[in-house]
Amino acid sequence: MKLLLTGGCGFIGSAVVRNLLRHTDHVVVNVDKMTYAASEDALEDGIRHNRHILVKADIADAAAMRGVFETHDPDAVMHLAAESHVDRSIDGPADFVQTNVVGTFILLEAARRHYAGLAHRRRDSFRFHHVSTDEVFGALEADDPPFTETTPYDPRSPYSATKAASDHLVRAWSHTYKLPTIVSNTCNNYGPWQFPEKLIPLVTLNALEGKELPVYGDGSNMRDWLFVDDHAEALIRVAEQGAPGETYAIGGRQPRTNLQVVKAICAHLDLRAPDPAGPRERLIRFVTDRPGHDFRYEIDPTRSEAALAWKAPHDFETGLARTIDWYLDNRAWWEKLRAARYAGQRLGTATEGEGKAA
To answer: Is 135 in the active site?
Structure first.
């Protein structure tokens, strides 16, 4: 099929593109605005692949989205494009409303117009797959059961609120306009090519450079972790096999506290690249917690594992080792990004970057 993929130069999107081109015969129309966190490098050999078409456009541009559908005539949509950094959403929520809410609305309208014009056979197989987050469900306490497909929504940050709003729009277009939509919710992803403002790459690179490793509160906040290539495989199965109107909770069954994650990074780096100054746990500093910091997220993927005949193959230790080794082997990519920040380019707000807490 010809798949219209939004956000395909982002962290998760580029993993989906690489997986599609290497393991399927699908054609990928990759629509990306190319914001600060997008990278054509992350497409690897996909950038020149004859089944990959890169369209640099904003999903919030209605005319551009109509043009993409008219020009490329896709068989399905996988919508990944989103602003996703919680701290950025606290500092500047307007971009999150524009991309996550308005952008999703415009994409849905373009898809609805396209769907109405499809021949009957193609209408039966068309899907609009919206990729979302577990943060829309709010926060769990230590003894609460993990999130499932039926957990009520309770978003707590501007980021999660805008993602919740986009989820609701997608389901409303299914109910009202009969657009065949699917929603998937996932947990924290990690792996190669992740922009170095997120927890694992940020801590890895700071530790390599002997910088402090600020940890919010006492480090007890807990997240469920999923290796990005595992998530990409699951997303492709949803696009190929998912049933319209369904929700799929995709998780890795690998919950860890932030402090456990930071210590695991330190331990692996100490093995792979020892620091003459001593073990890197010495760099950990506990700092004031961020506003509205949710305590715990965790997904129960039982239903999705059965429906998709899929289970995340990487445990956290294996995935983390692969990730850290990738950053050690690809210094040129992240050193360029870090240097650009110091040169005054907009890679983050004044409160972000090397001093950001976990």
So the answer is: yes
